[in-house]
Amino acid sequence: MFYRIAIDKLNIWSKSPTRKPLVLRGARQVGKTTLVNLFSKNFDEFISLNLDTEREKEIFENSQSITELIASLFFLKNVPLDATNVLIFIDEIQNSPKAVAWLRYFYEEAPQYHVIAAGSLLESLIDNQIRFPVGRISYMPVRPFSFPEFISALNEQQSSEILKTIPVPEYSHDKLSQLFKTFALIGGMPEVVKNYAKNRDVIALAPIYDELLTAYIDDIEKYAKSKVNAKTLQHVVNNIFREAGRRITYQGFGNSNYKSREIKEAFFTLEKAFLLNLVFPVTNAEIPLLPNYRKSPKLQVLDTGIINFMAEVQNEFFGSKELNDVYRGRIAEHITGQELAALNYQMMRKNHFWTREKNADAEVDFVYPFKNLAIPIEVKSGKLGKLRSLNEYMDRTTHHFAVRVYSEKLSISQSKTRLGKKFYLLNLPFYLVHKIEEYLDWFVSQVEK
Question: pTM, whole model, 2 decimals?
Answer without folding.
Answer: 0.90
